[in-house]
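Predict the assembly for these two chains.
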Amino acid sequence: MKRSHEPPLWLLFGAGGLLAALLGPALILLTGVVVPVAAERGVEVLGYEATRELLARPLVGVLLALSLGVVLWHAAHRIYHTLRDLGMRAGQGVWWACYGSAAIGTLVAIGAVIALW
Amino acid sequence: MSRPPVYRPSMRGWWQRHPAYRRYLLREGSSALLAAYALWLLAGLVSLAAGEAAYERWRELHGNPWVFGVHLAALLAALYHAVTWFRLLPLTLPALRWGGRRITDRTLVRGAWLTSVALSVGVWLYLLGGVR
């Protein structure tokens, strides 16, 4: 039987799904809702200096980059399989577009975090 | 989830045949908004590395009505994702025991929500504490 590359992909999918479920709503509420509403009232939330100082801490930065990576991986997995479920003849090209862009996104996040050091 | 190995023409329009199929599509589709949010944070991270001017421009964009609306949609998608993910959690784990007694599915799901709330409060305090 041909070896499948599904198990490691599924682990990343599961990690991303769990993380998005545990922290997704709170993070979106903070950066997407609290930041603009506070800005309207003249309060600065997640300002440049403070955020930079925070994310320049190696542990925080690496955790953020890896978190973004697994959530992108989670979405790539679901989008790829849903396209197939919808009847699209998704071959190698679509596979690479989904998982490849997740991998590139992860690398960009790691690069940006390292640039903060 | 097991899938038929090939998509047959008779399967066309399968999502119209049962509400559960539509909920399944909605659940899978919520991942597109999660990905959009992750990419948005990635753009913020890159602009933070690029300097103050770029980062402030990214932060100001949050006040745009369209950006705000997509964030609200992403918030709903993330909540739906959490509800469905935690509901399926017991099926993905082996039977857990604690002190000789089996942990019920109900307890497990409640524990997941409690963990989510605790982690969320912790992350909020950490991120906002770093601001002031």
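Strands of chain B lie at 97-98, 101-102. The radius of gyration of chain B is 20 Å.
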